[in-house]
Amino acid sequence: MSENTDPNPFADAAPGDGTHAPAPDEQAAHAETSAQPEGASNPRIAELEAEVSAMRDKWMRAEAEMQNVRTRAKREVEDARQYAVQKFAKDVVEAAENLKRAVASLPQPTEGEDSILTSMREGIESTERSFIGILERNGIKAEDAKGKPFDANLHQAMAEQHSDEHPQGRVMEAWTPAWTLHGRLLRPAMVVVSKGPAQAG
Hints:
Layout: H1 24-35, H2 42-83, H3 86-105, H4 115-137, E1 140-143, E2 155-161, E3 171-174, E4 178-181, E5 184-187, E6 189-194
Parallel strand pairs: 2-6
Antiparallel strand pairs: 1-4, 3-6, 4-5
């Protein structure tokens, strides 16, 4: 029996790990990809980064504007809450001034005075203190201007007089206090302002 002399069918196969060689089309595509420069896609990346930066800037501006709107709205609501009763408060302080005048009109305490007069005085004074306390708890305050520098924002000058005791521009006398509501002027103090010492001659 003769030996098989047929040529090895795998004799022409390429040596290696058994993988087939790339087809010509794949080799061409790989060569074309490898030939592209590394920075070929950079313009598109730069364009996208610019868009992202612009969108971030717009978002930050919109957020800042929304914060400003919220702050303004909160301030307006607070102002409306605090000053909605401003007209009513002006009438209330007028009542407080009348009550103070009533106290001032009472005669000074004297020894042996009638008990009815004493009780009346104490009752009116107690009512005034209580009323002023209620006003202060609701943001309405009275400020005595006597002895303070004249302030056009708080005081209304009803007269000017020479004075050797008070320097020029100082409030000599306050007929009424300055009333404020949460720091905002309700009614200015009616005052007499010093013109300083009278000039000799």
